[in-house]
Amino acid sequence: MTRLQQTRLHRQIGLAGDRLQLWADNPWRRLSLQVITLLGGFFMGGTVGMVTGAISYLDPIAALACVALMELSVRTRRALLQQSGDRLTLQLIDAARTGFLYGLLLDGFKLL
User: Fold this and answer.
1) Burial 2-39 (b: 16+ CB within 10 A, else e)
2) pLDDT score recorded for residue 60
3) What ranges do the domains of the chain cover?
4) Would you say the C-alpha torsion 45, 48, 53, 54 has a positive or negative sign?
5) What b/e sequence results for 75-108 when a residue is b if at least 16 CB atoms lie within 10 Å of its CB, and e otherwise?
6) Per-residue pLDDT, 85
7) Residues of the chain whose pLDDT is less than 50?
8) Among residues of the chain, what percentage have pLDDT more than 90?
9) Given CA atoms 110, 51, 43, 45 in this order, what sign does their dihedral have?
10) Residue 61: what are its φ and ψ, rounded to 5°?
11) Cβ of 44: how many Cβ atoms within 10 Å?
12) DSSP character at residue 5
C-alpha cells in the first residue's frame, strides 16, 4: 500500500486541530467556541425533530440515528478522558451533545 503524497493542503488539515487548540488558549475564545458548538448542536437537534415531524415515516430511522450519535459521542468521551493534555475536544463534544439533546427535547415538548 502506498502512502499518500504530503501536499500543502494535507499538512494544513493535519495542523488544524493544533492551531485550534493554540487559538483557544484564551479563556474567552474557548468559551465562545463552546457556546457556538452548543448552539450548533441545538440547531441540529431542532432540525432533526422538525424534519422527522414533517415526514412522519422517518421517525424510527431518525430515532436510531440520534441514539447512535449519542452513544458514539459517549464512547468517544470515554477515550478522551484517558488522554492527558488539553481537553478542548472533550469540552466541544460535551457542548455539542448537550445542545443536540436539548434541541431534541425542546422540539418534543413543542409537539405535545
Assistant:
1) eeeeeeeeeeeeeeeeeeeeeebeeeeebeebbeebbe
2) 85
3) 8-111
4) positive
5) eeeeebeeeeebebbebbbbbbbbbbbebbeebe
6) 79
7) none
8) 44
9) positive
10) -70, -40
11) 17
12) P
